[in-house]
Amino acid sequence: MDDFWSWWTQEGASTAARAISNGTAERLVPLIAPRVRALHPDLAWELAPGPDGSEHVLVVTAEGDPKLRAHARRWLLGAPPPDRTWAYSDSRLPGDDEPLQLSVGDHEITSDDVVVAWSLDDRHDCLDVTVHHPAMAQMPEQVRQQLTLVLLDHTLGETTVETWIGGIESAVGPLPTPVADQDKNDDDDGDGVGGLPQLRAAVSALADSRVDDDGTPIWKLAESTADDGSVTLALFRVPLRSASAPHLEQHVELTLPFRHVTEAGLPDAPSLQALRAFTDEAEAALSPHAMLVAHESSAGRRVLHFYVDPLSDAGERLRQRSAAWSEGPSEFRSTPDPAWEQVAHLR
Fold it and tell me: What contacts 165, CB < 8 A, 6 or more positions away?
């Protein structure tokens, strides 16, 4: 990691900018590709037009592989600050508002001809999408799927796709014709049909609805009752996706018994106060190397779900804190989990 950024800051950035300006960007491949492979052989990279304030962006991406996201994020965390020439990203950014032109086999694809139907999955905090282009009827399934992902990544960016898009399908037949007025096209349940710009607006609206007024991610409450009448109360952050913090790839599960229990098996006031103090103090002490993403309470026990950076000492410090819990013997479990599968039952 350090070797890459040392080379980049000393000569790579200026060499790359010069090559792009001169129209000889292909000469950068033997300079950049081996250095990215040294980070991890399966990472991908690209140079693209930069976001606002920067002329170019250097992207090193895991291409959706959760096992590689941490490598790309740590590369990004070591990057220099963006400047007028270069910005940096660990995922592909959305393209500009100009129509995307693609050649796929014998077909010329224009993104303006794409129609998307989306449906809000409120339980899982995502949109399920179906994408159609007239040429898809002549394409093999694998090509249709690849084209669909390229269109979504270009419209939304990789991280947004991984965070807010659920099911993805490509349609051979035409979808319902979008109406001109998107306000009339979108009903109150979040479903709609439109072009790719309208999909971008729908995803933005979904993301905005999952934060507080100050931009902090909301937490959702879920309650279930077993056949024996016992209650489980779960609280979890939204979005509960590893793309939001890919370098936090180690799951730490703390189970804390509590002494003051309601009839439903949930923490009563004194224990509730102690549990809140424990989590608040742990997060304050361990941030940014640890994040509490969920907790579940049932039958006199609270299970805390943390994700931590395995290259830090956050996991060990959580173990020490849990061992000092005063309301009963705690349990500690730590497992690698780059896809955040240990909390998949909550999202």
Answer: 126, 127, 128, 129, 152, 156, 203
- Alpha helices (H) in 171-234, listed in sequence order: 182-185, 196-209
What are the pLDDT digits (tens) for 213-228? 998 999 999 998 887 7
Query: At which residue do the structure tokens 């173990």 appear?
Result: 319
DSSP per-residue codes, 294-338: EEEEETTEEEEEEEE-TTSSHHHHHHHHHHT-SSS--EEEEEE-T
pTM for the whole thing? 0.89
Contacts of 333 (CB under 8 A, 6+ apart): 252, 253, 255
Using CA atoms of 240, 245, 246, 251 in order, give the dihedral in degrees to the nearest 10: -60
Q: How far apart are CA 332 and CA 187, in angstroms?
A: 46
30 DSSP 8-state letter:
H
pLDDT tens, 14-65? 999 999 999 999 999 999 999 999 999 999 999 999 998 999 999 999 998 9
Q: How many CA atoms lie within 13 A of 299 on its CB side?
A: 7
Going by C-alpha positions, the residue among 123, 162, 119 that lies closest to residue 345 is 123
Instruction: Please tell me the distance from the alpha carbon of residue 241 to that of residue 91, in angstroms, as a whole number.
Output: 15
